[in-house]
Design goal:
The complex is a heterodimer. Chain A is mainly α. Chain A has helices spanning 2-32, 40-78, 91-98, 100-131, 137-145, 152-162, 175-182, 196-222, 226-234, 239-250, 252-267, 271-276, 286-295, 300-329. In chain A, helix 1 packs across helix 2 (40-78), helix 2 packs across helix 14 and helix 8 (196-222) runs antiparallel to helix 11. In chain B, helix 2 (92-102) crosses helix 3. In chain B, strand 4 (57-62) and strand 5 form a beta hairpin. Classes of the chains: A mainly alpha, B alpha+beta. Chain A binds chain B through residues 225, 227-228, 230-238, 241, 245-246, 249-250, 252, and chain B through 50-52, 72-74, 77-79, 81-90, 98-99, 102-103, 146, 150. Chain B: This is Sn-glycerol-3-phosphate ABC transporter ATP-binding protein UgpC.
Chain lengths: 330, 361
Amino acid sequence: MEQFFGAATTIVIGVGGCLLYFFASNLLLDRLFPASGPNISRNINRANAIRPWLFLLPALILLALYLVYPLFWSIYLSVMDAGGQRFVGADNYVWMVNDPKFIESMRNNILWLIVVPAFSTFFGLVAAAVTDRIRWGNFAKAMIFMPMAISFVGASVIWKFVYDFRPEGQNQIGLLNAIVEAFGGAPETWLTHEIVNSFLLMVVLIWIQTGFAMVILSAALRGIPEETVEAAILDGASPLQLFFKIKVPQIWGTILVVWTTITITVLKVFDIVLTMTNGQWGTQVLGNYMYDWLVRGQDSGRASAIAIVIMLLVLPIMIWNIRNARREMR
Amino acid sequence: MADLKLVNVEKAYGEVRVLRDINLDIKTGELIVFVGPSGCGKSTLLRMIAGLERITGGDFSIDGVRMNDIPPAQRGIAMVFQSYALYPHMTVRDNMAFALKIAKKSAAEINAAVEKAAKILQLTPYLDRLPKALSGGQRQRVAIGRSIVRDPKVYLFDEPLSNLDAALRVATRIEIAQLKEQMPNSTMIYVTHDQVEAMTLASRIVVLAGGGISQVGAPLELYERPRNEFVAQFIGSPAMNLLPGQVIATGAQTVVRLDNGGIARSSVPTEASDMGLRVNVGVRPEDFLETPEEGMFTGEVEITEALGEVTLLYFKRQGDAAQVVAKLPGIHADLRHKTVTLSAAAHKVHLFANGESLLYR
């Protein structure tokens, strides 16, 4: 109950504070440059020039505090030693490229980068196309979208149970091993098999992201002019040809945006690996490796260096994605 | 070569029947125009012929083969859509070639068909452009070209000119007429709400209203001998004037005393039993003549619209009666606020009882 009141108070203060800020700052602006008197037109022009900045100010301050400042601080820390006391130059970066665990993380990240966006987008596209055609499509959509509402940690816990192992003879509580046993196989400790386990972890993220891809692509599919579809039907296109030659090319821009958006999510993947394997058995990824060095290794230098690498990987995709999304909007 | 036959065709969405009792015989080489007010079902009928809408009753056949359950692509038809419906991601060439590629025709055959259609439609310089780099008129020609390459038995046009500006509409209309001249054996069905398109293009016009066919006939037949008041007022602009009255003399020439006090003579014959019948006398604005004597209608001109070749006179309303409009040849702007008496030649005067023409009894 106490938490509830705490949350409610926070919301009230937060929303009220915003309203108060915009109201009061606007009022102040109008007082400073009143829309009356001898300088009326100059005052209105000045007020209009200032007003957008007034409204942007809180967002800019927060962005500066939580994004820009940490960025520069990370760059600074990445050239310092473990405690952030002594300048060590590029030492952390040199260590990084020679570290087998970092190489493993890079390799896994590349794997994730290829597999997860590809499968999520593909399944999302198929789900979008199929659910638009069937009567219980909306129910199916809700079911497919549901994992989006679960936190990564929650999803990981669910899937940890799916992959759970009990020695032979005991009741298998893991879905995967139960199925394997039902077909006469022996239960496996799935998450300890290198390479296979990475793909098993990717399944979790695909499961989550398919819903996202489906929703966006479904909207795009509905935006295709009906006449082009009818014209293709008259031209004799089969349903498959209709889909791949008429519909998909028309939503290609959206597919790319979905793909890159998921790519960015994948580059930051952390929670799933931490929760399910904590990077053991060859499943390490950059996000978790950074966290590992910061929290367990107590080395802010190396952790920051890894963080910078992640940022450099995300940046170009992010820029491309934003440009593309803007073009789509026009 | 294609004869189309529709027998008692109907379309129902659940309980609501939007089209019923559609009976139509279309012969090879005809250009049939469906006209009617919006919502009359003309586009729906076209889409049923195309196979994009299911036919819920009756039979539709092409050359004697029942088409009700044949998929659209196998009916031997091609359709030009109002919005062009070009595939935006394909060049003009690919747009036109798409159907042939689907049909697995050889590359040489496809190329020849596309080049030929492009030449007819003057699209050759644009073959490698995307639709977005074309003007509205060019897009429409690509849409037509996409139909031509398939060499269909029947061409369907769904309001193909309504997205073009006025000047382009006239030019494209003439192009379609020329296209029809070049392909005398192809059957075309054309939907429009523009009666000028209907009058100029059609070999026969089908007027649709209220979910059924009001009249089928050659353009001038509809103009000169409308079957009912709806057709009479739909064809021709401004619409035909309808003046209520009562028959006072029957025979080869019928005389009607109008409620406004005027007398109308019509060469529509009536029988003795029609004496005293309530009728509407129909006169087209262009058939009115100014007369110094006693006429059919006398009133004060409220507004004049002088167009040079003709002048439109809008008369002051008298009571609940509809506004009377006359179209006189020449310039008569000076008639504004004057009182004018109008009459019309007997053979230009139509008679309607209960909305139906007395000519077709």
